[in-house]
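Q: How do we represent a protein-ligand complex in a form that can be generated token by token?
A: Start from the inputs.
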Amino acid sequence: MMKLQNQFNGVEGLDQSRREIMVGPRSNGIRPRHAFAAVNGRRESFPLSAPPSAPTSNAGSDVAGLDFTREDVEALLNERMKTKNKFNYKERCEQMMDYIRRLRLCIRWFQEVEGGYLLEQENLRELLESAEKKCTEMGNNELSRSVIHRILRLSKCLITESERISAILEVLMQNKEEDLNAIIMELRKNYNLLQEKCAKEESDKLAVMDDLSREKEARIAAEKLQASLSVDLEKANQEQQSSTQKISSLNDMYKRLQEYNTSLQQYNTKLQTELSMTNETLKCVESEKAAIVENLSTLRGQFSSLQDHLTSFRVGSYASQEEAANQKEALVSEVGCLRMELQQARDERDRQLSQVLSLTEEVAKYKDFTGKSASELDCLTVKSNELEAKCSSRNEIVRTLQDQLAAAQKKLQMPALWLLLAFQMSDLSAIETRKQFEEQNLIICDLRNRLEDAELKLVEGEKLRKKLHNTILVVVSHRSLSPFDFQELKGNIRVFCRVRPLLSDESSNADTKVINFPTSTEAMGRGIDLLQNGQKHCFTFDKVFMPDASQEDVFVEISQLVQSALDGYKVCIFAYGQTGSGKTFTMMGRPGNANKKGLIPRSLEQIFETRQSLQSQGWKYELQVSMLEIYNETIRDLLATNKSYAMENGTSGKQYMIKHDANGNTHVSDLTIVDVRSTREVSYLLDKAAQSRSVGKTLMNEQSSRSHFVFTLRISGVNESTEQQVQGVLNLIDLAGSERLSKSGSTGDRLKETQAINKSLSSLSDVIFALAKREDHVPFRNSKLTYLLQPCLGGDSKTLMFVNISPDPSSLPESLCSLRFAARVNACEIGVPRRQTNARLSESR
Ligand SMILES: Nc1ncnc2c1ncn2[C@@H]1O[C@H](COP(=O)(O)OP(=O)(O)OP(=O)(O)O)[C@@H](O)[C@H]1O
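Then emit the structure tokens for the protein with adenosine-5'-triphosphate bound:
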């Protein structure tokens, strides 16, 4: 209590003279150690007493002014409990103790309240009132009352002190408030400044954040890019490695192929020489054969004449033969008679001889009997002489008879001999003829064998040629070979470029040379350079024909491709180019001039010729022709007999539908298909079609084709000996020319045609672009032309495009467009050409 009073006494002294009391700086809830006061205009500081230490277990001893302790109260209580109601006193004492504890706490709180300046007077008053109440409740107990009084006193004292302090505090608070207000103002200012700064910083921060996020994004993107680039780089490295390997392997292959090519070329030359030798032998054999056949026929004539002669002789000699036979029979019977007579004479002679003998024996006997009389002997000798005479006469008769017989026999033998001789003669000549005939037959057989051998060789040579042409040579990358040799392997569309000569009416403005043909070994015959505004545009194709190239020169380059159609390939050749650039000239040629015949008639001539020569190898071909034009997006049958399509408004009466079958063959419904057997028939059909074609005059071309012309030749061949079948198709197409309306000066119907032509050609370029980019969808159906050409552009055909170019400088932009388009076409990869061939089915045999 004393400590407290001292503390406040100091303050009380201050109270009288102060004008302004301030509290020392307080921050972070730390209690201030000084109070400041302005004393007589001077700022002084007064130390505030330290706060009481933390309450000890003996709480009562900390309370200043309360000079009794808990022990006192307990002792008092114990004493009183001896006499009074134990329970009531104890309870009340405890209540009192509780009250005192709360009072102590109040004092401590008062001391410890921040700076000791806030005093809850209301609470103290409440406490006081409750203490008074409790005092009343406690009644007349002396001890309690004195305790209570003390407490009350203490309380009152506390109240007054607190009131005083609160007054001081109020002042202090006011001052402090002002200070604080000033500080707050300052702080607000600072705050505002800070806020502005903060806002600025915030905006800066946002900008920086934006920058940062952008940078982050950029960094992430860069990292991603870096990652993808590194992946790409890795891939590229791998690709590079693999391509290096590929290149080296390709180089190896190239070398090997070159070697192979050389060997093949040698082989080819050998084969060619063999072929020519075989051909020569064949020619010799054929001439020999002809001679033999001639010989044979003369021999046959001889033989037949001999046979005729023999039969006539036989017929002629028949009568004399009969007569001779009769004579012979008569003679034979005569001979028989003579023989009988002779026999009889012989018998007689023998008998007489035996008589002579017996007589001779008898004579000998008589001679033995010497004793016989001479007369008897004489008589016997006479007898013997008679008999001998008889015998000799008989011998004479036998001799004459024998002579007669010999004569008769001679007579008999004469015609027989003659006949026999004749027979023998004719037999001899027949045998000789037969011999000759057999010899000739042998020679013929031999010749036939040789002929067969030669033909076999020829077939094998042809087979080899085909094989070399269609299989082996395709892998040989040698420019001296035909570009079609590569087609089977690469599957690209080949492109030939043809520059026509300047026409007479063009030569006036042809001083400037805009087209060049490079002469370097690389590009010789394959390159073409265009000069536009001083800029050079270089192009390379499979072949470039200069203006002086003849129709024959051009055909030579495609003849092998045409040959492929006979070998069972689908072949498509089409001419593309600006109007008047020479497409129709290339495809059809100039009518009535044999030297200027175009590719279509030349191809057909070759096909018919080859068909003829292949017949000897067992090949039989059937050829069918159809011709159509696509005019204003409508199909017209150029071989239709009734001409129902030719309607006034240019629209077709019939609706022709294009269909492709599973084999990639194209069919146009209701189209006239004509069987052809000779070039003359085809020429007739071509003339007929040319008359039906839509042709018109434009500023660019006197005879401008206003439609796309499609000539189709279907070839089906059967080989009887090898049982092979082939189905080839040859499509030859003369496209309508692309043109600029401003240049062509088209109006009316021409304008409509031009628009249709340009639209279908742009569809063609769309298709080519889609193919070049290997897009999933190729818009073949966008025009009739592209749909018709679908198997040629996207299938397994051997396709060749002619890009025709005009050398006229005024056509330079169009030429450049055409060449760019052609370069695209050249890069297009379509399917690998497939040969349509199969073994013949037994049913079809
Ligand atoms: N190589 C050539 N040699 C000689 N004359 C040629 C040659 N090429 C074209 N011509 C001539 O040029 C003219 C135009 O040729 P052509 O009619 O063939 O052109 P086009 O491209 O078919 O034209 P369009 O698309 O208008 O039908 C014709 O008179 C033709 O005879």
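The first strand starts at residue 18 and ends at 23. The mean pLDDT is 73.
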